[in-house]
C-alpha cells in the first residue's frame, strides 16, 4: 500500500476506503445494504433494464463508438456455424455454431469504470498538474493507452473488473423524471431532483443505487436504429453537473452509483463557466474522479417505471454486474430489477 498523492482534490474521498482502493463508494454496499435491497422483493417479478446491445444503431450519438460487429471463425471448408460435427466423427449428428463479436464497451447499456474519466491535477504537489484518476492512479503508469506503452496497457488499475468482483447487487431507487418532463430537455438540479423525490415519497440510503428514468432510451428505441442525433441532443432530462448543491447532495447521500437511461447522466456538454480550467463533464468529475461513484448510462427503465408507478413504489432489488473483463474502462451489461 502506498500513497500516490500529496494533494487530494477538494471534496474528494481519496484514501478514505484505503490507499489502494479501486471501487470507491461500492464499499458502502454492506451486507445490511444488500439485505435492505433484498427486502424490496415482494412480488417475485423481474424486469430487464438493458437496451438490446445493438442500439442506439449507427454512431450518431458518439462518433468514436460503433455498433457490434460479429465475426465467425473458419472451420473446415466453411465457418464454425451450423457446423456438422460428423466431420469429426461420422457417428455425430450434432450441428454447432460459435461466434465472436467486436463490442465497444460503452456503445449501449453500460457501466463507466473509474478509469473512464480523470483530470489534470497536481496530485504530487510539485506545482505541475498531471493526468490522474480516482485515488491518485496515474495516466501512463496505471492507465495506459496504446500510445503510451508497448505492453498490454489499458486500465491496469480502476478497470471494470474491480466493480465486477463486488457482485453489484443492492437496493435501487428509481426516480421518474419522464413523468415530470416528458420529452422536454430539462436541466435537473438539486431542487428539481428533491422535488421529484418528495413527489414519489422516495428515500435513498447509504449504499443504494440511484436510477433515473428520463425516457431517453425509449426515444432511442423508437428511432429503430436510425437515431436522429439532433433530436436526441435536445430531448429528455439530464442532471445539472454544474449545480454545487446537487454535487454536495451526491457526496452526502451515500449513494454508490447513478444509473440513467440517457447518454451521459448529466448535460453534455455542460454549460460554460468563467475560469481558466474546469471539467467539461462536472458530474463525471465529481463521481468517477473525486468520489469513486460509478455511472451507468443508456439503461432501460420503461416497464420497471410503469410498474413502480402503478404500485406506488420507488425501491427495487438491483442486480447489475459488468463483464469481468480485465483492463476495460467500461462494460456493457444487462441489469435486472426484481420487485
Ligand atoms: C463520455 O465520454 C461523454 O462519456 P460517457 O459515456 O460516460 O457519457
UniProtKB/TrEMBL annotation:
One GO molecular-function entry: arylformamidase activity
Tree of life domain: Bacteria
Listed InterPro entries: KFase/CYL, KFase_sf
One biological process term in Gene Ontology: L-tryptophan catabolic process to kynurenine
Protein name, UniProt field: Cyclase family protein
Native organism: Roseibium aggregatum
